[in-house]
Amino acid sequence: MEQLRSFVDYKKEIILVNIQSKNEYPNYYLRDIKKKDTKGLKQLTFFKNPFASIANVHKEVIKYKRKDDVQLSGTLYLPAGYDKNTGEKLPLLIWAYPEEFKDAGSAGQNKLNPN
């Protein structure tokens, strides 16, 4: 994703942009809008991802039933390289957002986040 941050030089048509993606940490670039593709792009910052150590964490949406038969869903995060088939037990941390729902079906709703 590329976002315009500022006009640097109106006459030369140079702008300051911020570029980031799911796999690329945000950095600033000068873009010459007269040139196409990356030819008009000059990287200004070289910020490293401070979260690189968790970049390969396994993330999956799971569904489960509560004791009162309400269907719920959540996101399970497993360490990078963890083999679920080994049966190795891991510590568990659960965070539940306290919210009231009008019916049991709504309580199990899932708002997927691609990141």
Short description:
This protein is mostly beta strands and 115 residues long. It has one helix at 104-107, and strands at residues 2-9, 14-19, 27-32, 41-43, 58-65, 71-78.
Describe the main β-sheet briefly: 4 strands, antiparallel
The total count of strands amounts to 6
The domain tally reads 2
Strand order of the largest sheet: 1-2-3-4
| Continuous helix count | 1
Q: What string, H for helix and E for strand, traces the elements in order? A: EEEEEEH
Shape: elongated
Q: Distance between the terminal alpha carbons, to the nearest Å? A: 14 Å
Q: Could you list the spans in which at least 5 consecutive residues all have pLDDT below 50?
A: none
Q: Which structural class do you get from the secondary structure elements?
A: mainly beta
Estimated helix fraction: under 10%
Average predicted confidence as pLDDT: 86
Radius of gyration: 22 Å
In terms of DSSP E residues, the strand content is 25-35%
